[in-house]
UniProtKB/TrEMBL annotation:
Keywords: Zinc. InterPro entries: GlcNAc_PI_deacetylase-related, LmbE-like_dom_sf. It holds the Pfam family PIG-L. It comes from the Bacteria. One of its GO terms (biological process) is glycoside metabolic process. This is PIG-L family deacetylase. GO terms for molecular function: hydrolase activity, acting on carbon-nitrogen (but not peptide) bonds, in linear amides.
Length: 252
């Protein structure tokens, strides 16, 4: 197998997150840079997002529908055309075998060269990263990527009933973890990221200092990564799954 089976050599990326807006907050600038370079990105959102929002009088079903629309709008800003939802209840996500199977199905359907996932580890330095859904999403995603998606003995019914062959994902880019080792300069895509975050109206409309807060966080990561003053960066821990995996196409 070569590095890509896509006729145009495009990088394919699968971003898995617990809630609508999670990927946009942690990796939106990086996603925009990848799509701008021709990558094909799929979002997989595991919960319905019905546990968020500032107004407790809004019915869960209404909020879930609204958050799905917001995520589709935000993804479009970043150049993401394929957005999928599993619809698990927000706040009750569990990294069980059933969830792993659902993620494996999407991995085998989209055949990505790179996955962006949340960390299953606790990052004590930043309180929002402690959300149990985030860590459950990270644990289930990691198990789905390695070893499940590549293992022909894992969920054989996906092959027998749906024709979904095993697939190895060469790179895993972990967000929100305690040990980032890679910073991506997102100075040029900051405005796209911010516009995407503002599309999540139910989550960000009340944040008067959204621009300042996001810029400060990205500036801090840029400084930690040794970038020049004034630059902005998103942070990841990048993992190669094994030396035998197909190389991802060369993109930022």
């Amino acid at each position: 197998m070569s590095g890509t089976d896509s006729p145009d050599g495009a990088l394919r990326v699968l971003a898995v997150a617990a809630h609508p807006d999670d990927t946009d907050f942690t990796a939106g600038g990086t996603i925009a840079s990848w799509t701008g370079a021709g990558a094909e990105v799929t979002y997989l959102v595991l919960t319905d997002g019905s546990g968020g929002g500032e107004d407790p009088t809004v019915p869960r079903a209404d909020l879930a529908a609204r958050r799905e629309r917001e995520q589709r709008d935000a993804a479009a800003v970043l150049g993401v055309k394929d957005v999928r939802f599993l619809g698990h209840q927000d706040g009750l996500l569990r990294p069980d075998v059933a969830l792993r199977r659902q993620i494996v199905r999407v991995i085998r359907q989209t055949r990505p060269h790179r996955a962006v996932i949340q960390s299953p580890e606790i990052n004590w330095a930043f309180l929002p990263d402690l959300h149990p859904d985030h860590r459950a999403a990270g644990e289930a995603s990691l198990a789905a990527l390695y070893p499940d998606a590549r293992n022909p003995r894992a969920f054989p019914e996906l092959l027998l009933e749906e024709g979904l062959a095993p697939w190895s994902v060469p790179e895993i880019w972990v967000t929100t973890g305690p040990r980032p080792d890679t910073r991506v300069d997102v100075s040029e895509t900051f405005e796209q990221k911010l516009t995407a975050l503002r599309a999540h109206v139910s989550q960000t409309a009340h944040r008067d200092r959204l621009r300042e807060d996001v810029r400060a966080k990205l500036a801090g990561q840029a400084a930690l990564g040794g970038l020049a003053p004034g630059r902005l960066a998103e942070a990841f821990q990048v993992i190669r799954t094994d030396a035998a995996a197909p190389a991802a196409p060369s993109h930022p």
